[in-house]
Amino acid sequence: MSAVMTQGATVRGSRRRALGSINLVVGGILLGIIVLAAIVSIFWTPFDPADTTGGRLADPDGTHWAGTDKLGRDVFTQLLIGARLAITVGIGSVLIAAVLGILIGLLAGFSTRWVDDALTSLLDIAIAFPTLLLAMLIVAWRGASLDSAIIAIGLAGSAVIARLTRVVTQRILAQDYVTAARIAGTSTLGIAREHVLPNLWPTLVVPAALQFGGAVLAEASLSYLGLGSPPPNASWGRLLQEAQATVTVAPLSAILPGILLVITVVGANLLADGLREKLDPTLRRAQ
Prior knowledge:
This protein is an all-alpha fold. The chain has helices at residues 2-43, 75-110, 113-128, 131-142, 146-173, 176-183, 188-224, 236-243, 252-279, 281-286.
């Protein structure tokens, strides 16, 4: 009986590893397409983003591969620039969330009980607060711009990273090797640098990948509401907002930005799931 159970667990573990590898590859390919489009837009676009000489709502042809919008701008050019904007927002906001979240999490993990409880309560409130609403409040306060969107989304996502960092830090600090390092006279900064941070990053990679997709979606939502990056920055959310009035005449102007948003978010989620299968020590032991 135990042999059958062991064999079943081995089969399930093999299936999870195979699924994790597939998710990692598919997610990497999907995100790679968006990153490639973003890089290409830095050096080349078919038309100038402000060029309105293409004719209003023209159908796709050899010159305008995805047609033109209601202002006569090339839709394919707008989509390429939107990819650059999405990658910029995703990376920028994740970096802000990671740096701020790790600092707060380490502070809570190393602090005394009452400081930890106070910070944990604040983090719980921040996590419970809707991310998009918090981002809208920050953008409304600072004004609509790309920098405001990145800062707002990064601040909104930092609470999750901080909470996870706190939990992992306290778990690491309870280990015998950390106790031995303290007895040997290692400073708090040394323990954080030598023991906590090296063991922290595998746990944070997965939520960071998930936050990347969420950040792209949040920026698109802000731009759709008019609180994101202003023109001439071609956010996919703003393209969707502008195309809704002409969706029956020129459906590609609305469909293509939506497809790219789906590709980016699904790619980030699949990549995060694949990384979780590869990096999560609990899953590795179960396998």
